[in-house]
Amino acid sequence: MFAPFALVANLATDVYMTLASPAQRPLVASTSYHRFYDVQAHRGGRGNTIENTLPSFAWALIDGATTLELDNGITKDGHVVVWHDEEITPAKCQDTHPAYPDDPDFPYVGKFIANLTLAQLRTIDCGSKRQHGYPMQLTYPGTRISTLEELFDFVSCADPRHEVLWNIESKIDAQHPNRTVGVSEFVDRQYEVFKNSPYKNSITFQSFDWRTLIAMKQLDSSITTSALLDDETASMSDNSTSPWLAGLRLDDFPGPSFGERVAQAAHAIGADILSPSAESYQSSAPDPDMEGYVPFTTREMVEEAHRLGLQVKPFTVNRMNIVDQLLDWKVDGIITDYPNVVRRLVKQRCLPAAPKLPKQRVLRCLQEHLDKQQR
Hints:
Layout: H1 4-8, H2 12-18, E1 38-41, H3 54-62, E2 67-74, E3 80-82, H4 118-121, H5 148-158, E4 165-170, H6 183-195, E5 203-207, H7 210-219, E6 224-229, H8 231-234, H9 258-268, E7 273-276, H10 299-307, E8 311-312, H11 320-328, E9 333-336, H12 339-348, H13 359-373
Parallel strand pairs: 1-2, 1-9, 2-4, 4-5, 5-6, 6-7, 7-8
Antiparallel strand pairs: 2-3
Helix pairs in contact: 3-5, 3-13, 5-13, 6-7, 9-10
């Protein structure tokens, strides 16, 4: 099934010839939300509401996000669930009771999702703990981790015309393969949910593990893919090939700048979108107006990506000066923990913004679906 994997270890030109070029392939525009500037609610907008839960996505819709950005894990019994971390972290979740009497796996907090069943995950409260880094978060005590099908069902209730867009990440660990399921199972199970969803043509599939992007294109070339990248996944400290880039080495690509080589690498695997970190981890300051700020996304990276036909949507942008800089460079979208705030700046710049969905309808659908989860 994954024959192209052997090719990606060869020269980038060989990889490119294996896959269709995104420069010749416009992104599918199947819903009206493609008309709007792409303000993405990162993890549902974790600056505002507990992350990756039905409540976070509800408020993202109320706040007028264009795209719901979220993460997927795969449970021990093969369910696609909406959660960012490989494990259930005690900082975000707390145990309530075992899924069944004398369950040897209990307590579940601290364990990997790949080692827990959906029934076990269902008992965990991931809505009560406000994160210290996000002091304005709304909490929803008792909120459970959802399956991807449940999230699609909830949003279909709140968005009956199926107009909102999606950016769905596979949280697979290329460095520690024992922590998550493998590439084949991850992609196959996600695609089974995608293809049966009314939102199938509105989904972008993103990953730091570029092997999954290649595999998804092999399953369905119509799926829009987005190549995530940051300092950690771009290279290894010993100058060996990063396990995240499907066998590619950024140094093998021509060009005077690192940013241009990044864009060429994403293009080589047939990605439609490049989604780099906005800020470099080497930055000693958090803001472009401060001495010591180092961007990871550069003007050269954006311009080269656009020349190659890729869109550019950096993450996770939570400072207005960075948003301003990126908008000046003509990026195609902003992934942020504060979609309501970034949306205001987008409107101030006279860019088209997605509408806010009716609050009463969204909250009614939210309560209905939260009640279903806790029955």
